[in-house]
Design brief:
Rossmann fold, alpha/beta, two-stranded parallel sheet, 18 helices, RNA-binding
RNA sequence: GGCCCCAUCGUCUAUCGGUUAGGACAUCAGGUUUUCAUCCUGGUAAGGGGGGUUCGACUCCCCCUGGGGUCACCA
């Protein structure tokens, strides 16, 4: 089978976490079956139009390394597109939708409606009051041909509505099985709005067919409007695609993932220093598990094991905690060179490559976000301020701390420069120093480490010495001694 | 509220009629360590309730309950 999937975001200015997963699943499915994946911009709501939204969306997909075979792209900084089924921006396809909407009017499956928004609002309010299903009352359906012609000729505002027939509509969903909905529940959906733009329902059906889409993989919030789509497919004589409705991604309180309860924009997570591969890995596992004995998967593994049949039916809470853990895991797997490269865009000040590399080596195990680097770097670039109390080990006292720091200062001063280029050698030298002088680790190491970091918790003194180098180490010990006396 | 969907540890999940119900995050305890982090070991923790079907149900069916989604000239 020739598989073709699609990702149709509305241009809201950012990529929602839930949309990311939808995009990923469509992308995985197409890749897995050697099919085609297309991106289409669904900008039929001009009231929600956001300047530059398409551009930022393309950029984000690019950053997420989700490549598509058809859709809008940048060519030399200009918005363009690739593929033979364009345009891929719905606002540029208005004539097409208009043609199809009118076709439905001629065939009797749709009709003009001239009701004002005001009237519709009142009608809805009335229906709600008597706890009735809110539906259009079909007032305009009784208009005669002449009346319609007259209204049309006078330029009266109008929309085109579906004429929902009686009966029931059943469709098959790859994830949920058969779903049946009584047509009585369905409103006479507007297909073509007064401003000449189509609604989502008309546009998706027409575009998915015209663009050759075979599988529609999208969020569960669409499941109740599938019957409308089925009718349109039937009326137009289009073959039905395969539907798969994904479970929702949820807030901790189990409601649909939304702003308000934390970040939902992929861009925000990227800005915090979550790795692209982590976002892909983590979001993919919300509702789908390749093997269940593992959490870390490469993109290739995800593609290889992707299967609509393996997708869960129930919604999944988006647990930022676990995301954070996974990010830490990936960071630890990165080589020092890679980490340096990843961290660079987050730097707020100049750092030499050598020092940055050393910092990354030493701090890797305690970094969960790439953004952490900004505060970490400060520690090494300038003498930190701190209270003298932290220089004193809990099992010791101030006098001993001074004594130890004075001695270690002399010792470090005496060490050969070459030693400072190897953490192992530094550790050996210090360990030997402690042993030879019959000292205790804590008495020496704690004040030293505190003097170098100004922190209660930090990397080991050996690592700090390696990054700071001889002169700065001596400076910081001197500083500590000054504070203590 | 009508309709639709869903239901295993707090969270993400495995199980596709027979398991001591497994893994991961979180959490707790311990080990390594000058501290933190990492790492290692171990623990607490789950099939919403009621009926069936069956020799046997987390697993299949029904009801209830609970949660969610949807009811726009938004997607």
């Amino acid at each position: 089978m020739n598989v073709k999937t699609r990702f149709p975001p509305s241009p809201t200015g950012f990529l929602h976490i839930g949309s990311l997963r939808t995009a990923l699943y469509n992308y995985f499915f197409a890749k897995k079956h050697g099919g085609t994946f297309l991106v289409r911009i669904e900008d039929t709501d001009r009231e929600r139009y956001v300047e530059g939204a398409v551009e930022s969306l393309i950029r984000t997909l690019d950053r997420m390394k989700i490549d598509y075979d058809e859709g809008p792209i940048f060519v030399n900084g200009m918005l363009n597109e690739k593929g033979n089924n364009g345009p891929y921006v719905q606002s540029q396809r208005l004539d097409i939708y208009k043609k199809f909407a009118h076709q439905l009017v001629y065939s009797g499956n749709a009709y003009y409606c001239f009701c004002s928004k005001d009237r519709l609002e009142k009608l809805r309010a009335q229906q709600q009051e008597i706890k009735q299903t809110t539906k259009y009352d079909r007032q305009c359906l009784s208009l005669t041909k002449d009346e319609i012609q007259k209204l049309l000729a006078s330029g009266e505002q109008n929309v085109i509505r579906m004429k929902i027939p009686e009966g029931k509509t059943t469709f098959h969903d790859e994830i949920r099985g058969d779903v049946t909905i009584d047509n009585q529940e369905i409103d006479d959906q507007v297909l073509l709005k007064a401003d000449g733009f189509p609604t989502y329902h008309l546009a998706v059906v027409v575009d998915d067919h015209l663009m050759g889409v075979t599988h529609i993989i999208r969020g569960e919030e669409w499941i109740s409007s599938v019957p409308k789509h089925i009718m349109l497919y039937k009326w137009f004589g289009f073959p039905l695609p395969i539907f798969a409705h994904l479970p929702l991604i949820l807030n901790p309180d189990k409601s649909k993932l939304s702003k308000r309860q934390g970040d939902v924009a992929v861009e925000d997570y990227l800005a915090k220093g979550f790795l692209v591969e982590v976002l892909v890995n983590f979001v993919s596992l919300l509702g789908f598990n390749p093997t269940a004995d593992r959490e870390i998967y490469t993109r290739e593994e995800l593609i290889g094991s992707f299967d609509l049949k393996k997708i869960n039916k129930s919604g999944a809470v988006f647990d930022v905690n676990k995301l954070l853990w996974m990010n830490g895991q990936y960071i630890k797997m990165l080589s020092e060179e890679e980490l340096v490269a990843r961290v660079k865009p987050f730097l707020k000040r100049e750092v030499s490559n050598d020092i940055l590399r050393r910092i990354c080596t030493v701090e890797k195990t305690r970094m969960n976000l790439l953004l952490d680097i900004t505060s970490i770097v400060e520690l090494y670039l300038s003498q930190p301020a701190y209270e003298k109390e932290i220089l004193i080990w809990k099992k010791s006292n101030k006098e001993d701390a001074i004594e130890q720091l004075k001695n270690i200062y002399q010792f470090i001063k005496s060490i050969d420069e070459n030693i400072f280029n190897d953490i192992q050698l530094i550790e050996q030298a210090l360990t030997l120093y402690i042993k030879d002088n019959d000292l205790q680790n804590g008495n020496v190491l704690w004040p030293l480490r505190a003097a170098l970091s100004g922190l209660e918790r930090s990397p080991s003194p050996f690592e700090l010495i390696w990054v700071l180098k001889k002169q700065e180490v001596m400076n910081r010990i001197e500083h500590a001694l000054k504070i203590l006396s």
